[in-house]
Amino acid sequence: MKRTFSIIKPDATKRNITGAINNIIESSGLKIIAQKRILLTESQAKDFYDVHKDKNFFTDLVQYMTSGPVVVQVLEGENAVVFYRDLMGATNPKEAKIGSIRNKYALSIEANSVHGSDSLENANKEIDFFFKENEIVG
Ligand code: CMP
């Protein structure tokens, strides 16, 4: 069993669709083995998205990710990283495949409802960023 890291983003928590997204996650067979609802600080958002610091959307992204609550999660399942990226759909909702989370719920390329790690290495880093091992219960 492998783990990935997920964020339900402010556009989704504001629309009260956390449960609807979790329903898609759980129906897919992925197990939510850690979860908390938090308000990211500016410093946390900047650190988390450090790889994007030179992108033209970085300032907007940090502003958006701190604009409301997020739900950070650890998901467990076979091939969890790739499996969850497929379940989320493409970053840009216009390109997200039918039935994916972003196809159903994302509002824009920025307010795209969910984040999922892009590699096993990043999944481990991102999980460590938000969770202690004893907060993760498989
Ligand atoms: P995420 O998968 O969390 O990774 C980086 C985030 O930056 C992405 O989802 C979007 O929320 C945002 N993002 C990516 N590309 C763009 C873009 N071209 N313009 C604005 N925001 C973007």
Brief sketch in words of this structure:
It contains seven helices and four strands. It is of the alpha+beta class.
- The low-confidence parts are none
What is the subunit organization of this protein?
single chain
Named once each, the bound ligands are: adenosine-3',5'-cyclic-monophosphate
How would you sum up the major sheet?
4 strands, antiparallel
Distance between the termini: 10 Å
User: What structural class should be given to the helix and strand makeup?
Assistant: alpha+beta
Secondary-structure element string: EHHEHHEHHEH
Q: Strand share of the residues? A: 15-25%
Number of strands: 4
Mean pLDDT: 98
What's the Cα radius of gyration? 14 Å
What's the helical proportion of residues? Answer: 25-40%
Q: What's the overall geometry?
A: globular
Number of helices: 7
Strand neighbour order, sheet with most strands: 2-3-1-4
Q: Which key features would you list for this structure?
A:
alpha+beta, 138 residues, binds adenosine-3',5'-cyclic-monophosphate, single chain, 40% helix, globular
Account of the 3D structure:
With 138 residues, the chain is an alpha+beta fold. It is 40% helix and 19% strand. It is built from 7 helices and 4 strands. The protein has a 4-stranded antiparallel beta sheet with strand order 2-3-1-4. It is globular and about 35 Å long. The N and C termini lie close together (10 Å). The protein binds adenosine-3',5'-cyclic-monophosphate. Adenosine-3',5'-cyclic-monophosphate binds next to loops. The site of adenosine-3',5'-cyclic-monophosphate has 8 residues, from loops.
